[in-house]
């Protein structure tokens, strides 16, 4: 008498998400060269141009907290690069999973649940953000951009910032059916101003009071403050905790909305 | 009986460069289509004008406070925001043209099969190239006028020569859209769009947009001088400050040659991709 094992195998909660990560990895191994620009190279270029080139015209002063301009913007550029990567990877790629490539539909036809698809996406984003941050931090080392070993914490801050930007956009992408100009307008009117006016290149105290509150709303400003506080000091402990709490809240809210949207769209 | 027509004798240099089938004098139709599409997505269209304005704002409130003066075209110090403004105009003319002639063109070429449809009508590849480039230039020109008005209102323009920045922006648009169009025909998938960013971003950052050429060590200065955006910026900065010099003729010639080469190459590529 032989026992026949069932071929259908229900995977565990985490395992299902990791299977998705394995899928991303398989793709990435083949295409990593074309993503080099977004993975680390873009912030490095900004660091060279703004930190060295533009920075050569800036005298260290009150504005930069006595730091050289290079050291002033290096941690902030890591956060800004992470925000852009997190948003970029959660816009068209997520919509494509639903609409064009339809791999989300294909995967949820197996025992992998929509929540695991979302989880896999977020785990993969986390890994990419950490990798990009590490590459950037390593290259910036040769520019003399880091004050001390706290750089390892800055990489972590970058990942957290990127994730806080990623979940709201993932939620939006999951609720987008006819994308029209939606993402284009978000990049133009949200991401770009956020990068310019979130304290990356100059402190937000220089903004007119009437629009300063906009910077407080942007997760990037909190990430920037956190990154700068970790790498160069100058931000108090409670303030750091506050910035982290904001990022965690934005992440959680985005994740909750995205989770609902994934189930709505993938479970008939 | 099937009568076989002899291929038309190709006499003369001009006709060898421009064989008769390539051009039907209907480039205007291609432009008209783009205008209609832009009217449907007018918000995105207008946002292109908002982008350089946001940069200008950032420089006015932020960067300009960090650096008040830099060395201008004649070596004498000038206000930092006035230094950056013409460079931003050049960049915005470049971006407007390149986006129109790369991302948009790629989708029309590979996914929408728009040009297959167009070439099935009495429209030739040169019409397509001229039409698309003409539209990209129009778009860049509209952005240039908007930007110029804002810069003038902020008191960043020092000379009446600045009015010539509009035709200069059209030339920049022509050069970049023509060369961009030729290059984009070589792309195979959207994953390769990173290469476009890889070409544009370093140019934007390093072609003396934010700091003068004198920052670089001598050998790097020569690398920067080879970048097309550098010549666009030099031209704009000279016009905005009214500090004209003979070297601006070199900048002008560089952009004209780039545009001519791009136009020739993109016509050839579209014909090769779609007619053979």
Written description of the protein model:
The complex is a heterodimer of chains A (268) and B (276). Chain A is an all-alpha fold and 268 residues long. In chain A, 72% of the residues lie in helices and 0% in strands. In chain A, helix 3 runs antiparallel to helix 6 (114-143). The longest helix of chain A has 30 residues, at 114-143. The termini of chain A are far apart. The mean pLDDT of chain A is 88. The interface between A and B is medium-sized, with 36 and 32 residues.
Task: Give keywords.
heterodimer; A: 268 residues; mainly alpha; 11 helices; 72% helix; 0% strand; B: 276 residues; two-stranded antiparallel sheet; cell membrane (chain B); ABC_2_transport (chain B); transmembrane (chain B); ABC2_TM (chain B)
What general form of chain B does the structure show?
Answer: elongated
Major sheet: arrangement of strands of chain B:
1-2
Count of DSSP-assigned helices of chain A:
11
Largest interface: A-B, 36 and 32 residues
- Helical region count of chain B? 11
Form type of chain A: elongated
Overall average pLDDT of chain B: 83
In percent, how much strand structure appears in the residues of chain B? under 5%
Q: Helicity level of chain B, as a percent range?
A: over 70%
Radius of gyration of chain A: 20 Å
User: What's the total count of β strands of chain B?
Assistant: 2
Distance between the termini of chain B: 27 Å
Give the helices and strands of chain B as they follow along the chain.
HHHEEHHHHHHHH
Q: What class do helices, strands and sheet pairing of chain B give? A: mainly alpha
Q: What is the CA-CA span between the terminal residues of chain A?
A: 41 Å
Strand content of chain A: under 5%
Report on the biggest sheet of chain A: none
Helix share bin of chain A: over 70%
Low-confidence stretches of chain A: none
């Amino acid at each position: 008498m032989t026992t026949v094992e069932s071929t259908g195998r229900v995977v565990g909660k985490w395992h299902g998400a990791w299977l998705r990560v394995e899928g991303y990895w398989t793709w990435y191994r083949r295409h990593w060269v074309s993503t080099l620009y977004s993975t680390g190279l873009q912030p490095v270029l900004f660091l060279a141009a703004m930190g060295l080139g533009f920075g050569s015209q800036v005298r260290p002063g009150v504005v930069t907290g006595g730091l050289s301009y290079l050291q002033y913007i290096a941690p902030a550029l890591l956060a800004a690069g992470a925000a852009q990567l997190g948003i970029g990877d959660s816009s068209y790629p997520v919509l494509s999973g639903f609409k064009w490539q339809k791999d989300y539909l294909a995967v949820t036809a197996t025992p992998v649940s929509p929540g695991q698809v979302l989880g896999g996406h977020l785990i993969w984003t986390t890994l990419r953000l950490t990798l990009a941050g590490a590459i950037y931090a390593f290259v910036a080392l040769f520019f003399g951009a880091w004050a001390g070993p706290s750089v390892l914490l800055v990489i972590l801050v970058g990942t957290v910032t990127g994730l806080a930007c990623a979940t709201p956009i993932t939620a939006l992408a999951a609720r987008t059916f006819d994308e029209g100009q939606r993402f284009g307008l978000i990049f133009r009117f949200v991401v770009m101003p956020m990068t310019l006016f979130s304290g990356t290149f100059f402190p937000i105290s220089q903004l007119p009071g009437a629009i300063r509150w906009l910077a407080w709303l942007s997760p990037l400003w909190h990430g920037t403050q956190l990154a700068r506080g970790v790498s160069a000091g100058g931000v108090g402990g409670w303030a750091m905790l506050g910035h982290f709490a904001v990022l965690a809240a934005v992440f959680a809210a985005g994740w909750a909305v995205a989770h609902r949207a994934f189930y709505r769209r993938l479970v008939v | 009986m099937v009568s076989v027509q002899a291929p038309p004798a190709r006499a003369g240099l001009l006709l060898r460069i421009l064989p008769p089938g390539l051009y039907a004098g209907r480039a205007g139709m291609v432009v008209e289509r783009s205008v209609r599409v832009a009217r449907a997505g007018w918000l995105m269209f207008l946002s292109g004008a908002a982008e350089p304005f946001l940069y200008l704002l950032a420089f006015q409130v932020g960067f300009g406070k960090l650096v008040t003066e830099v060395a201008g075209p004649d070596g004498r110090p000038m206000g930092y925001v006035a230094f950056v403004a013409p460079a931003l105009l050049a960049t915005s003319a470049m971006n407007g043209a390149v986006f129109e002639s790369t991302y948009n063109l790629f989708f029309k070429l590979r996914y929408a099969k728009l040009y297959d449809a167009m070439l099935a009508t009495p429209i030739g590849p040169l019409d397509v190239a001229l039409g698309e480039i003409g539209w990209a230039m129009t778009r860049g020109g509209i952005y240039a006028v908007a930007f110029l008005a804002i810069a003038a209102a902020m008191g960043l323009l020092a000379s009446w020569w600045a009015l010539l920045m509009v035709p200069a922006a059209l030339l920049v648009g022509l050069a970049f859209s023509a060369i961009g169009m030729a290059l984009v025909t070589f792309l195979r998938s959207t994953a390769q769009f990173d290469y476009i960013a890889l070409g544009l971003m370093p140019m934007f950052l390093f072609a003396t947009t934010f700091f003068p050429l004198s920052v670089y060590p001598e050998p790097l200065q020569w690398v920067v001088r080879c970048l097309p955006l550098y010549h666009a910026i030099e031209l704009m900065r000279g016009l905005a400050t009214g500090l004209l010099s003979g070297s601006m003729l070199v900048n002008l010639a560089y952009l004209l040659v780039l545009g001519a080469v791009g136009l020739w190459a993109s016509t050839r590529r579209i014909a090769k991709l779609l007619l053979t």
